């Protein structure tokens, strides 16, 4: 039994990645593709400027794109993946949830709202329980679940592994070296980035600092409470295609050795969901790893790569890396969809 | 009146940069070039694999290279610039100092020895006073002065500006995005770095952490004392040709506003030495600057570029950048040579 | 005595380069800046998104931008530099010429029209004589002169040098490796070009094939006749910032040796115009040169670099390179302006 | 029944690729690994600096490396893959052939010797018949078979397809844009190639010009005769990791339309060997394809990608691309090994 699913914003860069992941997915069947009003009514092949390195799946290419409204999407498509620009997402996701659709969204709007679960399944899948409150308060039959920003997803699983091992997180400094694909296909021009780096990505630092605390926070049955650690982020764009690399320094209430940290990473449990990798965190001994080009596809692009775990002046420091358009975007939404199905929300 | 100078290790990458800077220098005259025994006795043009984008100066090309020994260098060449591999520098610099030569060295050996001044002229030129102790203790007629590592030079002037403005530095986190030229011409292969980044540069982090404290420390007339701030560094290599970019977070005893920090940077005094830029620190308002390709040549490659000064979770954070082979290596040694002459040590 | 000049399309990428070249120019004074209707009436500083690595010249930043119409430009500005998109140039250049302005244009429209001189001053400055016919036939008081495409400018001077040396050109094959700046600031995204190359640049090949024959053709007093050589071009975009590199094979009626070809290049005369380099063609013996990053600035970016001259299966082959936004675009227009003044057309 | 095989020069870059391809190969079993005398006697894991992005196969890592001499390799290993530097290959391949081993070699030595088959199985597998003459003349029990240079392999299949379609080839001009991996792991430094291109690769042009004529030549039962077409090549290194892109112009005795050329490419038969792709030549309609990063892995890196087929001033021109370390090196040798087994030479 497969679940019929739709993609909101199917012609965009993440929309294309979603189709690439959903088409061969054993649990899902692509049954609806939406885009802007101009694209509605046309075959997907004619309106998508396809930029994925595998061809458009034959059947998907022939599907007729619809408008991005609840009326245009068939009722028997209970689960929708959303990769809309956040300004659009902010307008259209609510009507879909009101109309009874469950929306697994990669868009940044509403991520920090108190009754919207922001979820990495292996880290805080239990936050889905907040959907009861969401439905009650908002009067929705559907539901809205978010995955975090790609740069947040890269380092939060390592913090979760430390928390799981009983290591109390107090402060986190994180510097990111982010790939150009994170800005979308046209987001960074070649003139901006060849032989260069840009030490600023608009509003990205705030996402790492706030989303990470929500992800590691607790749901006590009535509300989501942020974790009390404090996080400071500094974000950079560098000339890599895919894979966000991050330098992390942590201060903790304990004084774990690098070996204990490596063990905490290696032993952090994954899930049996289709898109969950085993292990979740791949730990390198070589201090030169992880590297974006070599390691972004560990676990089919769904694992976290960590390395360089060492004593720091203030505690521990290490590096981590994840594939920003797989684990960090489209794959994150698909994985949340898998969890929503398994937990009975769809 | 020009000072006759020599270059130890003249055929190497930094040696070539030294020649490029010294040849047109109004205060210096190149009078000796040394290299390995195999190169000795040959015209410089025949033994240097010249890789600078300006041609070999005509007269330099015809100079005869000598061995790297005090006997081979004329006595009337009082000042020597050294850019030897640190293992070689550790062996040969001492004999030169014993023989009465003043050595301004970019090599990393001996930088942390207590009676060896580690100097950025605009920051701690007064540390040269320790040369009295050096000469007395070691019985040298000559002297040995070091400049710091290129990645250290990039961020220390910004810290010095804060200290100068009365802001008490307590902790510093610094992440570096370093250019490939920092590893020497053959140091990073293209297979290693295209579409990639490497989160490790051997022993580089320790240099930032220890050299910075020595540079900001005080000489009390008898000994050099480290500054008490604590520094944690994380170093990355990225695909840029020249220019090290650094993300810095500081915690201070005061609570300066970003505006106060920008003012401290902009008002930090430079020197009237030939190679000192005016201003020393170029402050950008645009949060996307500084960027390596756009800003590495501010102040003819001898200035520090700073930007993105903003409130951080823990204090202040900002970015800075310097040209690693000019301000960070050859230019740093030449500048130290200028100070040694001005202060009467040559 | 300086000539008052204007820039049509002053806010664009080439417009900015034109301002950078014209502001310090000893013969020209910037007296008019035009742009789109939305920008008209505002200070240049407020409407130009300045991307040149030197700052906006102070006085230029404060000039008020006007609309791109003859009425909006003062009458005492006789010479205009045009860097408009070709569709815009096709509409507005004619009214300016009718109104008496002399237009030196980098836009691709009208380049192949029979009474429009397409000029590289050192190659075919005498083609300006066709302006008599242009003025007579079109009833213009002004005049329209074009410079070729950046990729055409790179190899045509080498062909002209061979023709000057009496070597009869029969066939030319040319493959280009073009820098991203040739497509404008936003022309090539980083996702398209990092770790990649694109073997197609729309309509570029036809430009090399037809413009080159017009440039080497003759003006017999009444008409411009194309050179009879045949040219086949293949164009590629590669991940370089500036500098177009080209591989050239030629078949000739003679059988020149590589040494004769090198001599023809080296001895080809330059002009005494302000922006003409001396020599025009810089010849390298090292077969690995010219290279874009090392050699794009020879002759302040206005020279042609050539190297690798060798016997080929079919005749001679060699490589050449020029800075595409200096010699190949803005500098080309400025140089044509200098020639127009010297020849009395302004 | 698998064939036991060995790798000569197993620690090098191509040697590692060979192991990556041979380990999971259904027809081969790795039974011997040789390297320099210093490595002999040690486990492979300890002496290979492994740089492939998949891990060292467990069993291979534990194999003991031997010297590269016939005595050191077990007699029951009939087929050896050689990826030695050509100077080493020139010395050691002959003793192995004398001792009865069949050597499938990627090394450039001996490629043009008249009784050494230079083979691309899909193109000229029948050239293996020359082995009879080789064995007779040289008195070998073994045999020596070569695959061409990576840049040769990229364009020759397209020429073969035209010949197969009855199109008489007369002249070929080919410009290459080659990836850095073609020079080996340390072959191109990052300082040489970032934001740059190098219009020269030592002796590469001669390889394209001569190997191509041998490959398309005929074996008449007694000797290999070169094809009579004439080829001129110009080779460039560009900043791509993998995938050689080539621009090709052809003049033919017929006057084929671009459509006929595309058909000839698409219909050119592949083989049923394990590593032969189906189709051999993948034809793109989009003139911007093939591109190295997008298309180097077509046919698991063993196919040729072609596109941009268009009329040229002199005939037809098009672009082609192949993965230089798979189809162009290690994969080429493995494929020749498969053919040698199928044809009964092993």
Automatic annotation (TrEMBL), chains A, B, C, D:
NCBIfam families recorded: asd_EA, PRK08664.1
Residues the record marks as active site: 150, 244
Species this protein is from: Saliphagus infecundisoli
Signal sequence extent: none
Family statement drawn from the similarity comment of this UniProt entry: Belongs to the aspartate-semialdehyde dehydrogenase family.
Keyword NADP: yes
Residue stretches making up the Semialdehyde dehydrogenase NAD-binding domain: 4-131
Keywords in alphabetical order: NADP, Oxidoreductase
Any single Pfam family the record assigns to this protein: Semialdhyde_dhC
GO MF annotation terms: aspartate-semialdehyde dehydrogenase activity
Protein name stated in the entry: Aspartate-semialdehyde dehydrogenase
Classification via PANTHER family: ASPARTATE-SEMIALDEHYDE DEHYDROGENASE (PTHR46718:SF1)
InterPro entries per record: ASADH-related, Asp_semi-ald_DH_pep-lack, NAD(P)-bd_dom_sf, Semialdehyde_DH_NAD-bd, Semialdhyde_DH_dimer_dom
